[in-house]
TrEMBL record:
Natural source organism: Ohtaekwangia kribbensis
Protein name: Rhomboid family intramembrane serine protease
A molecular-function term among this protein's GO annotations: peptidase activity
Matches recorded under InterPro entries: Peptidase_S54_rhomboid_dom (IPR022764), Rhomboid-like_sf (IPR035952)
Entry keyword set: Hydrolase, Membrane, Protease, Transmembrane, Transmembrane helix
Length: 188
């Protein structure tokens, strides 16, 4: 196996692990009727704190799960392939800081799904090139913007059944993380 193949494979490990946990949670809830959905983020409640860790693993239906799986695999793999030295920190922030913001500021509801993490990754990859201003980062930003430019509409409150707060928090975390790491000399 060549080093580029192992690098490409290695860059997909963390996103694939998260997606595996997402699908396993979905399977347990819908095949065995386990009430996993109650472990979403319920803002400003003691019970809702568990959702900071579990909400991205829980999805309402198959379409919801698939719509988070594909971008999680793509954006996560791009992140770790091109920005290996900072990828873990970016992923961690997109996961936890996004969910903490949702717990602190979102409307009272049960917020579930990995879209906050997806938005964090997308907004990081889109904005990093603009702040860093090197050729490769700008190209990555342009490609992600071309493929996922619709994320800008997702931060608006258009559907009461969709946690736009998770999208908005992910966008904020992605942009602030891009600003934070844009001055770092080595990112891969």
């Amino acid at each position: 196996m060549s080093s580029s193949q192992s690098s490409l494979f290695g860059s997909s490990v963390i996103p694939f692990r998260l997606v595996f946990l997402m699908w396993a949670s979905f399977y347990l809830e819908f095949v065995f009727a386990l009430p996993i959905s109650v472990y979403g983020i319920e803002p400003r409640t003691f019970h809702g704190l568990i959702g900071i860790f579990t909400a991205p693993l829980i999805h309402g239906d198959l379409l919801h799960l698939i719509s988070n799986t594909i971008p999680m695999l793509f954006l996560g793999s791009v992140l770790f392939f091109f920005y290996g030295k900072i990828g873990g920190q970016v992923f961690f922030r997109s996961y936890f800081w996004t969910n903490i913001l949702v717990w602190l500021f979102a409307r009272p509801a049960n917020h579930i799904g990995a879209s906050g993490v997806v938005y964090g990754l997308a907004f990081f990859l889109i904005s990093f090139g603009f702040f860093r201003r090197d050729f490769l980062s700008i190209i990555i930003s342009a490609i992600v913007l071309l493929l996922y430019g619709g994320v800008f509409y997702g931060v608006l409150p258009t559907d009461p059944h969709i946690s736009w707060e998770s999208h908005f928090a992910g966008a904020l975390v992605g942009i602030t993380t891009a600003v934070t790491f844009s001055k770092q000399k080595t990112v891969n």
